[in-house]
Task: structure prediction
Amino acid sequence: MLKRSGALIAAVVLCGVSVGWAQPADFDPQAATDAMLATVDEAARAKSDAYFEGGYWFILWNALATMGAALLLLFTRASAGMRNLAEAITDRRGLQTFIYGLQFITALTILTFPMAYWQDFVREHEFGLSNMSLEDWMREAAMGFAVNLLMTSVFLVALYGVIRRAGEAWWLWATGLTVGFFVFAIAISPVFIAPLFNEYKPMREGQLKEEILAMARANGVPADNVYEFNASKQSKRISANVSGFLGTTRISLNDNLLERGTPAEVKAVMGHEIGHYVLGHMYEIILTLAVLAAIAFFLVDIGFGVLHALFGRMWGVRDFGDTAGLPILVFTLALFGLLATPITNSITRTNEAEADIFGLNAAREPDGFATIALKLAEYRKLDPGPWEEFVFYDHPSGRARIHMAMQWKAGQMGGQAMPMSIEGFATPPAPDALAHPAFAPFEGEGEPPAFQDLPAADANR
Ligand SMILES: [Zn+2]
Result:
């Protein structure tokens, strides 16, 4: 035991000598990344891995639930019944589509409700991520349903108007319509939809706000567009986002981030969000949506032809312009969405990595960026395999982000120009602790020597 402690101390001293207090050029980003990852204990790692890996399956379950519900509505002829009811109520086709839409969205929501309840309520509580009572959750689910019911039904009226008039080129028109609706929804969201669920207000005053506004202005972002919102009402997750479009664009950060993040971490996150804004990612998303929607609608065209030829009679679906066939469209779109998951994730993840780099350059807080990645690891798997990251990750993994930050730090700051900010961790650093927590002196009792327990060999990996 004594011998082991001795070896450990020797290793720490060696680390300190070889890395922490040596010439800046000796800062090894890989070793620093490994050391940071090693600060997350086994139990915490196992928990967030389990949570995140469970999420992989939900991609499949959700798609299957939607496809199953669509088939059920077709085979029971419930969809045809909804269409008949709409036709009995009015002769106007647009209004028929709207009434069919109301029934269909309601049926789909009820059929997939157990899945939503399990995923968004039961599981979030199981992993200690939710702050909502069942009553709160039900209220928000009901509001979400109302917004979805109204917007989707209006969209369906426009979609079926296009399908009935545009002939063979319907999918091109439908793509334009989808993009138009998306832009509309994004633009009104910060003003009309997000406030239904959270309170948004200008960010709280203080030194940190001044620094964030300065960073925003320096990067050409209108400074009055930084908001804070009370996400703690719903969950413990820390986050920030860019929302809106054109006149409504704004950057928002949540109260969990402000309460739990250090100033360096908050600045690192805001640098990332400013990156999304400045790099015009919203335009890229719109363009991507246009391409994916065109492909999806083209496949729907083929899928409908095949399924209608096989089952049209049985399902009571007359032709493509018949709303009773909507579940066929939904089935095909859900299947496409499932199969396209690695592509859509990779497109998003690429933008996120760009925003990460932008944020590192804008905020110059590589350590804050790395430690906030560790805090995000409460519900994101830190260290996936390369294929796992490619298929399932819509953000770079914790390891990728920490490595990026350490790489930036090595290049820009010789590895140790900035003091390490590790507030919120179990073992606070000595005031004069150098660049990385791995090299902080021993402190604390009963805590695992997480920062210090870095075998000398690892430092050179
Ligand atoms: Zn982002």
Remarks:
- Confidence is low (pLDDT under 50) at residues 1-23, 419-461.
- The beta strands are 200-202, 226-229, 240-243, 250-254.
- The chain is about 65% helix and 5% strand.
